[in-house]
Each structure stands twice: as C-alpha cells, then as structure tokens.
Design a protein that fits this description.
- By secondary structure, the chain is mainly α.
- The chain has 4 domains: 111 residues, SET domain (Beta-clip-like, Beta Complex), CATH 2.170.270; 143 residues, Annexin V, domain 1 (Orthogonal Bundle); 102 residues, Alpha Horseshoe (Serine Threonine Protein Phosphatase 5, Tetratricopeptide repeat), CATH 1.25.40.10; 62 residues, Serine Threonine Protein Phosphatase 5, Tetratricopeptide repeat (Alpha Horseshoe), CATH 1.25.40.
- It is 50% helix and 12% strand.
- It contains 17 helices and 12 strands.
- The chain has a 3-stranded antiparallel beta sheet.
- Helix 15 runs antiparallel to helix 16.
Amino acid sequence: MKTEGIDGVERFDSPGKGRGLRVTKAFKVGDLLFASPAYSYVLSVSERGFHCEYCFKRKEGLAKCGRCKKAFYCNVECQKGDWAMHKLECSAMCAYGENWCPSETVRLVARVIAKMKTQKERSSSEKLLAINDMEAHLDKLDNEKREMNETDIAALHHFYSKHLEFPDHTELLRIFSQVNCNGFTVEDEELSHLGSAIFPDVALMNHSCHPNVIVTYRGIMAEVRAVQDISPNDEVYTSYIDLLYPTEDRNERLRDSYYFSCDCRECRTKEKDKMKLKLRKLSEAPSPKEVRDMVHYARNIIEDFRKAKHEKTPGELLEMCELSLDKMGSVFEDSNVYMLHMMYQAMGVCLYMEEWDRALSYGEKVIKPYSKLYPAYSLNVASMYLKLGRLYLGLERPSAGHSVLNKALAIMEVVHGKDHTYVTDLKKELKAQQK
C-alpha cells in the first residue's frame, strides 16, 4: 500500500514485526526518503522566548502573546496559526500563574484530543485513522506506567477541563499510551530538547540497532534520510533508542519502552559489545563477578544521576559524576560506554557551570570512542563535534575548533540535508571565523 504523498516508499506487513515501510526505488546516503508534518506538537516550556511556538523557528526578537505573555511567535501569522492550540493554555496560564505545571506529555495529549475533535468535525479521516491505528500496548503496561498515566489524566482534567471535552477514561488511557509509545522528541543540532510531537507516518518505521535511515527535524517537519544505501524492496529501519550501549542494555530499554526485543544483526552477533564494555588492563584481571558487579553499579548510578538532576545542585551532580568515574575506572577503560556516559554528563554540568576547560577535558575523552561506537552518520557524534568546536573557539584555539566543526559539518550535511538552516548557519560560522 503506497503511503500517501510519499514517492518511493510504501507500507507493508513486515514479517514478525507487523506494519512497516519499505522502499520501491533505490536511495543513496543522504537522500531524503520523505518528510512528514507533525500531526500535533508542543514546544518545551524551557524553549519559550527562543523558538516560535508555532513553527519552532529559532530567532531573536520574537513577539509575545499579549494575554499570557508566555508564548512567543515570529509574527502575527504564526500567532494566528497557533491560536487553535494555544487557546487551550493561554487563559489557564494566566489563571494558575506559577502553579500552571502540566507535563509536556499532558500538553501534547491535550492538543491531540483537540486535533482529533477538529478532524472529526471536518470528516478528515485519513490522519485520524493513522492516530487511532498507533500502538498503545495497554495490556503490557506495568503498575508504574499505569500510575503515571493516571497521574497525567488527573493533570489533564485539572488544567484543561474548561477548554476540552474529554473522551471516556479508557480512551484517555489509550491516547496517553499511544503518545508515550509513538511520540517523538524534537531536538536541535546539539540534541537539546525543543519539544514533543506526533508523526504518524514516521511512527510506521520499525526499529533496528543498525538503521538505514535517520529522523531529523526542520521546524515542525520530520525528515527521514538515508544513512546507508538502500535498494528497492528493502525495509526502512530507524533506531528508537540511543545506540551507544551494549546489546543487553539496548534490549532492556526496547522491552521497557516499546515491548519488544530486537533481533537485528547487531543484536544477534553482539560484535561491538566487547569494545563497548572494555576493561582496564590490570596486572590481575578482574573476575567475572567483579565485572558483573561493576556493570550493575554503573546501571544504577546512571539511573540515580537521572533522578538527581531534579534534586541536586550542579556542584553535587559533578561530584556524583567524578566519584562514579573513580569507582568504575578501577575496572573499566575510559572508552567503556558506562564511563563515557558519566563523562558526557560531567561535561554537560561543566558547561552549565561555565567551567569551559573542564568541559573540554571531558569532551576530548568522549569524542574518539563515540566516533567508533556510534554508526557512521550519528547525531550524537555530530553534536559532540559541535560542542567541542565551539569550546575550542571560545578558548581561542581556532585551528582545533575549525577542524572538529568541519567534522560536524560532514555528518550534518548527510543527516540534515545541505540546505538545512543548521548546516548553512554552521558554514557561515566557519567562514566568519576564517576572516
């Protein structure tokens, strides 16, 4: 079945995976397979004032909503275009003030419900059916996820009851589960979180830990580009998760969030696992139990750090990173993925604290293993090159800065496209630095 508006890509029943997408013609690395507008989307509260609420364009001098003073737009046209969605929140933000605090998921679901109601009234069924057809996995939710959904439903009623007619409770549970399972995090070129969105066509793609396409964003449009050469009749595979981690970790994340295990070649062979879990060369090798215990500690500290981000000061977070690195470093090599994870977190904290030299020191340790462990055209690697390049330039090391920014550019031209604003802006930045 040909996917509407997409030339060279069709839906099909993928053996053992259910629905999927495959190509009907050849695509080369960097080719755009298709672009998909968001069915519904929401800008992160933290990005207000930096990006337009309607088109997600990043620019200075945005105009704020005259009523709530919290939503910002490029111009009157963008403000009018967003009113159907912004009106769900505008008066509520005024009324609740600092107590207006629905989660991003709740905000997105409110917009999905409003959009579905509008489409029913207009009898526009194609995309409505696409939303209804998205996977929910209600029967597979554990108690924690059920409780989270119930909390979100309560918040939806609390903050949006004056502007929305809600479906029944069972339907709300289904919609929240669909959004959690099929929603996309919209990110910029440095992988900073911009917002959340639903792209039904993009959600049709199945997962592989050796993907042949990548999803990037141009405003509120998702673009799917080839990162491998793809032959006619090949299935289109993207990655649902961060690919840095070893096979067991990746599949645990897939089972927890998407309710399946991956059987791609990477998962069957586990050929990168030894390199990802590299041990330090010691006079006496650690026992298998010592290694297992340290892996267990590493997984726990990663989860502890994730929770601590909302509770501890930057100084405390940095100390947490350094203590964990000291402990893991007694067994793990610096290129071990658990070490890399905590070094990356430490770099982020140092950037926040404006400790540029320390941030650079961590980044320099991370980038070489990243470039080996991630796929050839990785947003994680490109974003790290960008951060390093700008650190070098800020620390008046222009030669090193230009070198790594050009490496970022080479990846970005493939994954974002040569005409993307991120690419053209970086070219201008490099040109200005060379004068």
